[in-house]
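Lecture 7 notes: from sequence to structure.

We start with a single chain of 920 residues. Read the sequence below before looking at the structure.
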Amino acid sequence: MAKQVEILFKGMTRPAMLFGVPILPLISVLALISFVSVWTNIMYILVAIPIVLIMRFIVTFDDFMYSILFQSFKLKTPSLNKKYYGVKTFSSMEYRKMSNKVDYPILSILGLNSNPSFEKYIPYSSLLDDSLVLTKEYQLISSWEIKGIAFEVESEENQDSINKMLANIFSAFSSEPVSFYFHSARHDVDTHLKANYENKYLQEINDLYFKSFTAGSSKATNLYLTMIYNPFLNSTDKSKFLSLSSNKFQNELLNFMTKFKDYSNRLEANLSRFNARKLGVYQEYGKKYSTQLEFYNYLIGGKFLKTRALNAPLNEYLIGGLKNIQFAGDLVQLNYTTSDKKFAQIIEIKDYCSTTFSGILDTLMYLDVNYTITQSFTPLQRSKAKEKLKKQKKHFQASEDDSITQAEQFDIALDRLTNGDLAFGDYHFSITVFGNDLTEVKSNTNKVITNLQDVGLQVSLADLALPSTYFAQFPTNYALRPRVSLINNENFASLIALHNFPKGRENNNCWGEAVTVLKTPSKQPYYFNIHAEKSKNDFGDFTLGNFLVIGQSGGGKTAFLQFLNNQLLKFADKSTFPTNIPENLKKMTLVYLDKDYGAMANILSAGGRYITLQNGVPTGFNPFAIESNDNNKRSLQILMKILVTANGETLKTSEEKELTNAINFIMDYIPKEDRKYGISLLLENLTDDNSDDNSLKQRFSLWKKGAKYGWVFDNENDLLDFPDDINFYGIDGTEFLNDPDISAPLSFYILMRVTSLIDGRRFGLGIDEFWQWLDNQLIQDEVFNKLKTIRKENGFIGMASQSVEDVLKLKIARAIVEQTSTHIFFPNEKANEDDYVKGLSCTFEEYQIIKGFNPARYPFLVKRSKEVAIVNLDLSTLGKENISIISTGAVHTDKVSEIFSKEIPLEKKVNELRNYYKNI
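Now the structure, written as tokens:
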């Protein structure tokens, strides 16, 4: 389904004209000529003809040329200023003229009082409350930061629906005395997370990874919407207000605030779908700061700076960190008090395209460019809009414009306006593009211009009215807007769209900071977490952390899982725990159930223990050598039941009772140190039914030492242990997972022992090709219960697989999908729609993205309850040898085993392995 488009009534985007000349300058010039003619010589009236023709010729260059010239004249600076600096310069400080009576020496040809300041163009006066600013013209403003809609994975139908909702918000305010400013601020962000590892390899991997986030490589796009309330219908109302007595003045101002808060509450309720947060005051170390003022400061200077909320005139201390602003031709130079500088150019829309659609400007967010987009919209009451449209229609007809389509659009617009389908308002647009030097800013500007032209917009660089265009970015500076056009609410909604990329959450997660940071196609960092978000601050709470990873071989799944394990291990650091956690629980254990030895080198390099099993070789497992408690006895009963029901047999009630009694006797009455060869011990406590060739005892005899499967569990001691001085364990299932006779009992026993570690410590269990480890109904039942309860025990289960089809065959497949807070999908060009949409609860759009991914770029899709993000894992800064360690090739496992079996320090083992991978 194609995106819905809205007509942009182009005939209304131009100034009203008569004889091809904008009406206001035309009338002004003709009035002046008439006045001179009347007072001098009536024949001078003939001069009007060539002057009008000249004026008409000038307009052929730009419909807004006279507005631009007027703005240029308004912000003209003294000649001495330009002579002194070489360019038009506005200082951040305003100085008063010194008295002539004081005999001070003249030190400069340019007196400080003659140096123009941009303070007069800062419209803000005072902070009335935590989120409400009063302007110098007694207008009230509040601003919201908006997370926006994750448009990359939204269907076009949903985008259209959301866009209609947004358009209706502005239409609902068309009869109110409010205006709106929208800003999209794309800027550099620092990307780094704290991580302190005891293991040198893990620390090096972490540090090398974050080197890929070089200065300027990560961008963020912040969206802001500002509402402005003008309580005065006209200048007379304002004069009356200013003439009120002090008490009445205060009371009336309180009335204005009450009215505006009603408007802002309405707006905020409507913006809830877009995740809006009102900017306001916050405290840090006992001092008050304001995110609202920080945003306004950014608009002034192009940098986000911490800004105090002071009891002082805002226009006097909001300077954006600037010493001065300089304008030369089409260039802006921002000179900061810190002696650094930044350059900018401003792009304006010279002529609009014929239609708009939701997210028409979205492609700008993929550019490696810093910019600020400013769009203002002042809705007109229906009667005023109707009157303006009719006048514009007459002037359009008088302008001799040949566009039949645009002429017809006036009737369409009037009809839809009358029916209440549309609202119209005054609109302006600019985009300030930044660069660190002249070459960069011009290159960045060209990228943006090309992008805008690709969507059908004709643009130009601001030059003559450059200062006005820059200062018009500040909310309420209506009079400084050089290009004001009439557009409708649907066009405005499409142009701002409120589209953005998910950011994840950097702090205040269940275990503190984000697990790691991932890159995105837009260069915006994505703070990846496995735990679900329940509140604004989940630190110390136990939220759901289970996750599911689906990806074909070669798509980067193994590398991601091991890198994720490494990043998770930073949470073993005691300083990352809440202070109220007992010291004995300030620890972490991570267990990874592997397949095909893919994690071997990484786990061993991280100081972990990696356990491999070989068919026919005693495992060192003795299930009866564990502690005797109710939970362990229950698990033993299930394990023994798996041993004797592997071929579909069932246990009679009498057999089940006999088995339970035998297990309880062994565990309760035989000391742990005497429970050697547990299966043999069990057989001694079972009676034999000679008349039944498939009796309970006969079936168990297969698992006795010396029998076919005696090597599996009938061992003298149990060597499977998990000491606290090791926090990373790997157990490989390659040798037994494909053997149906031993896979289920071994998988259950390993899971049983691993989950017994859960005691309130931070715990994670990762399972590769989990459907093979869970290929038994009794095991699935246990995992199903653990999926639901493990979050309460401060743990998580992460499950991964190449095969969606095999995953969905599990009886608990639906529960797995529901009980995992994060789903991660790697490329799969052979993806089946039913498997992904019906089986894994993906939307059709998500399924298409997964199927259409280019595997060469190692992208993947992260799906969480509140967001869906397209990301990729860039491990290029780790080097070939470290990447090879993270994802071990099966052909290298013998060499890895050889190196790590040596009696040398761990660091030397890791270095030897790195050298091995460097040289192959």
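Residues 246-270 form the longest helix (25 residues). Keep this in mind for problem set 3.
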